Amino acid sequence: PAIREAPEHEQATRETPAQPFALAAVVASCCAAYRDVYPEREIACRCDVGIATTVGSGDLIAQMLDKLVDNAVSFSAAGSRIDVTLAATDKELVLSVTNRGPTLPSKMRGRLFDSLVSIRAQRDGRPHLGLGLHIVALVAEFHGGRCEADDLPDGSGVVFTVSVPKRELR
Q: Cys staple from 81: which of 35, 42, 100, 148, with CB 3.0 to 4.6 Å?
């Protein structure tokens, strides 16, 4: 059943109506929930924008952020901090999730957001299907944006970044 998630999510994403929403409010709400869900991590949320509006789906953004934070938890140590940041450029809203831990494997760099690609170890004896980052890419695409992953400059972890167009409400 889990293997069907990717095509079903692709279809659901295509069929979701796009509406204006406040990205900062979605990010703040999600971060508050993550503090309860992941008590063994410090979830630091920083919003460096005033009104951060875009067009799309707040629900899809929340699902995307769930995948990014779950990924950050998987690749960080208990007691460490995960930084969720929302910033802005002239034309884009930039959401990033940073964790301390292993860097990205060089052989996987170009494939991280592909469907059914995973570098995680098995959990509870079950293989990890590698749909989370693919869903991140689908949601970024739905919002007219893009996603990237990179090592931190000091080699102490990774940062996943999703950029979406800034859109003023009228």
A: 42
pLDDT at 166: 87
CA 60 to each of CA 65, 104, 107, 146, 167: distance values in angstroms, whole numbers, following the listed order? 9, 25, 29, 14, 17
Q: Is 81 exposed, middle or buried (0-12, 13-18, 19+ CB in 10 A)?
A: middle
pLDDT score, position 147: 94
162: nearest Cα among 38, 36, 27: 27
* Percent of the chain predicted with pLDDT > 90: 62
Place 127 in a pLDDT band, splitting at 50, 70 and 90.
very low
Distances (CA, A) of 153 to 47, 158, 159: 22, 9, 10
pLDDT for residue 10: 66
Beta-strand ranges (E) seen in 89-156 are 92-100, 146-151
Closest by CA to 84, choosing from 167, 161, 163, is 161
Which structure tokens are listed for 113?
A: 């957001």
Q: Is the pLDDT of residue 160 over 80?
A: yes
The beta-strand segments (E) located in the chain are 19-22, 42-47, 53-56, 81-88, 92-100, 146-151, 157-165
> Please, which residues bridge with residue 85 across strands?
46, 96
Identify the residue with better confidence: 95 or 104.
95
